[in-house]
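Table 4 source record.
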Amino acid sequence: MPDLRVLVRGSGAVVDMAEGKTRIAGRSPQCDIPLNDQSASRRHCSLEARGDGIVVTDLGSANGTFINERQVDQALARPGDMVRIGSSVLEVRADTVRPGQGTVGFDSADRTYESVIQKRFEPSKFDWLATAAGGEVALLERAQRHLTTLHRVSELLAGARDIKGLSDATLRAILEVTAADRAALVLRRRDPDTGGAEVAAARSRTASDASFTVSRTLVSDVIEKGVSTFAHDAISDDRFNDGHSVIQQNVRSVMCVPLRTADDILGALYADSSSGAGRFNEADLELLSAIGNQAGVALHRVRLLSELERLLLDTIRAIAATIDAKDGYTHRHSERVAMLARRLGAAMQLGEDELETIHLSGLLHDVGKIAVPDAILNKQGRLTPEEFEEMKTHPGHGARILENIQNAAVKAVLPGVKHHHEKWDGSGYPDGLSAEAIPMLARLIGIADFFDALTSARAYRAAMTHDEVVTLIQANAGSHFEPSLADLVVRLYNAGTLLPEGWEE
């Protein structure tokens, strides 16, 4: 049976462990192994030599007890294992070191504790399922915690449609499943000329930490090397001495992992705590790394969606420009209708998604004119009754054209495209809808279309002034237009907020 000893790294203490004798380690001076460490509990854990190892039992400590960076309630530590209590580390040894009066001097070469741990986790592997201190029960409990957390995070990220939604979901999850006080999502700049990284979003548990900075040195290192890193006590580690964010904000425990896909590193997830050293462990790092993998894939998806939506919007603008070019009298008409209708929607305090739909509907409201003969569109005089009937088909043509595009954003604009020529009294077209039966989107596009059409010159008439058209809208409230919407136009116009700055008379 080997002679077991515990070396308190950094303090020069060696404690002899007699078979069957239990020693208490903690912050209290009355403990058998007293630790000058504010992150340790007063009575943190017990150690008892049994056979060829030491049974370590946590005594309900605040920050947990760890063997080789795996948190344990009770487990066997063998020679060579490291027991961490807060930021203090006890090394189990079975060698020829002989204590005197319970403790002896310790070689200064061993005083340096490697407080920063770096590890590379492969996205496709579940290394954290391979081993767990405490046996099969601890392994199963740990696996359940990890998988439950990752499933919840996956559901949250699946619903993210933009960077803000993704950031909120990711940071909220980090603060829920770790002991972090603050967390941030850092994105690598996509412009190769500028390089570097920037904080895209940050979140904290308290309002006092609402504004904080991350350790740029640590984040840059994680992004460049693709390694997950955490520090037990960053403020006391020499490698963070030049980190102003760490020192000024009294940061103690820090974790940082890559925000990655299988092929690229898009940024990093950062979490820290000023509540004390030893707040994180390797299991936390592994879990955060797995969240980083999920968030990286979600970020890649969000960026692809953003690019597709931008492509769609560019295509819609091109279609609108084509229609306006086909109708020689409506240069940029669709853009002006979209802008004006959106302003009305904003004044009604509609949500951003609704405003986007209004804008797209305005851009596309005349797309059906592509099916109307050029001779009718560009006729120099007034249309005959037969020609006007042909012109009235354009809303239906537009709706049928857009119905072929299997995109939720495009489908949402169909009511505005099809019904923007309906009238409040039911005398409009194509379906003769009246009052509330007319979709609100169509009412907004219709009144914006009316305003821009009459303030634009035609071969058979001059353009009306803004004052004249607003007066006409007011006069047709309740017949052509919804009364409350007509009143809104008049109110905004009189306040000088209806039209954007620079809108030509």
